Amino acid sequence: MSRVAVIGGGLTGLSTAYYLGRAKPDWQIDVFEEEQRFGGKIKTKRVDGYVVEVGPDSYLARKQAMTDLINELGLGDTLVTNATGQAFIYDRGSMFPIPGGSIVGIPTEFVPFAKSTLLSWSGKIRAMQDIFKSPYPTDGDVSIGDFFKYHLGNEMMDKLIEPLLSGIYGGDIYELSLDATFPEFHSLERKHGNMVKGMLAARKQRAATNVKPSGQFRQLTGGLESIIDELVAQMPANVTLHKSTPVTSIEKVKDGYVLGGTVKTPYEEVVITTPPQSYKKWFADDAHFGELMNMDLSTCAIAVMGFDRATFDAPLDGTGFVITRKTDTPLTACTYITAKWPQTTPQDKVVLRVFMGKPGDNTVQQFDGEALKELAVKEIQRIMKFSAKPLWVELTRLDKSMPQYKVGHRDLVARLKDYAAKAYPGLHMIGTPFDGVGMPDGVRQAHDLVQHLVNEDN
């Protein structure tokens, strides 16, 4: 029998314990979470007919690991896909529809792109010239910004690509690694020679499948926290969950690892699923962990606000908008929850989800919670041109929460994991610092690690 400790009781940690407990019923597994609740950033508020996500609000449907877990937990019948509709770019005082046929801003249909008023004719011509370009002149990693600027030009970058992509990681796309964030774009470019040809080929391939366009995102009618609730409820009997139990140290001993703040019996295997800054508690004296411990982390805030539909005096065209970086506002995007996820909101109400936290802007750090709420309401009223007062505002501040995958990130992870495998046998590191910041990425990493542990034991 093996003893396994899982540090972190968010989705990644709970998924690890769930899969491992089922695969190895004779192993003893302990999950240690320092907070008073499980689930990490996933938080759903259910009140007065609302189902409000104050953390992440959905996941990419094409990332199958999450859907597989949801089905395994018996929640498949509660899955819903987002309602589709026109999305917009807000640029310095005006709303512009994102051109039809665009994939993360990259044109795949000529007519909608040509008719768009967001870009000047010189910007459009520069972007379409990519069809004659050769691949980016390097075989190695490159920043998202440099890659797309090379292919599509400055104007496309500033007005379409940057606002659509930077919000996902909350960072400066001229520093973020293409290979660690959107490797599929690098693959398309290398295969077809440039981005326009690559995206046209991808669109043609999708059209050949005869699959009707549908929403790209999924959530659950009971909210995302229902996944956490079911993981806890269905956790195998050989798994013990510990709340309010911070791990203060990880000591390597003859028979494995002793965790400070917990029992003194060693664990043969330890799985760490926590953010990069947490490693400072355990490996401050090991220089090999330096880059991980000092990884840049972005800060943002989410303000969800509800209104009476009868008094909401702005048209809700489409499903929301993103905001260009050069626009004078700390806001980065707004989702019309009422339109995108209608099942979450009473019919006589309107719910908006407003994002704050541009790269290089310290507004979120400088303002306290109440001031941020007031600022979010004031700015969204100004941008959308309405005067209705919210019935309520729910603010979530995510301080230093999003790891920034800088250029060379994959090499950094490979070096660290190779070192740890030799210096700390039985120690495993997964989660947002390593291979994807989305919920499905954590579930996938958990599933893959469990498969590795099971195969190693056989």
UniProtKB/TrEMBL annotation:
Involved in coproporphyrin-dependent heme b biosynthesis. Catalyzes the oxidation of coproporphyrinogen III to coproporphyrin III. It catalyses: coproporphyrinogen III + 3 O2 = coproporphyrin III + 3 H2O2. It comes from the Bacteria. This is Coproporphyrinogen III oxidase. GO terms for molecular function: oxygen-dependent protoporphyrinogen oxidase activity. NCBIfam families: proto_IX_ox. One of its GO terms (biological process) is heme biosynthetic process. Its EC number is 1.3.3.15. Belongs to the protoporphyrinogen/coproporphyrinogen oxidase family. Coproporphyrinogen III oxidase subfamily. The keyword Metal-binding does not apply. Gene3D superfamilies: FAD/NAD(P)-binding domain, protoporphyrinogen ix oxidase, domain 3, Protoporphyrinogen oxidase, mitochondrial, domain 2. It comes from Veillonella ratti. Keywords: Cytoplasm, FAD, Flavoprotein, Heme biosynthesis, Oxidoreductase. Pathway: Porphyrin-containing compound metabolism; protoheme biosynthesis.
